[in-house]
Design a protein that fits this description.
Elements (H helix, E strand, L loop, with lengths): L4 H4 L4 E6 L2 E7 L8 H14 L3
Antiparallel strand pairs: 1-2
Protein name: ABC transporter ATP-binding protein
GO molecular function, one term: ATP binding
Keywords: ATP-binding, Nucleotide-binding
Length: 52
């Protein structure tokens, strides 16, 4: 578990939880160093849609 986007961007799957329940998830696929920035941006957009 992490609250750091840079760390989460290196995983294949990210879950968003609230009150102990999974409320949303995103699949990022296999990590490659050359796409870290794009993955971070994708996560930030996803979080914005969720209201964070």
């Amino acid at each position: 578990m992490t609250h750091i986007v840079k760390v989460a961007a290196k995983t294949e799957r990210v879950l968003f939880m609230a009150d102990g329940e999974v409320v949303s998830e995103i699949q990022l696929g296999k990590f490659r160093n050359d796409d870290l920035k794009a993955r971070e941006e994708k996560l930030l957009k996803w979080l914005a849609v969720l209201g964070f």
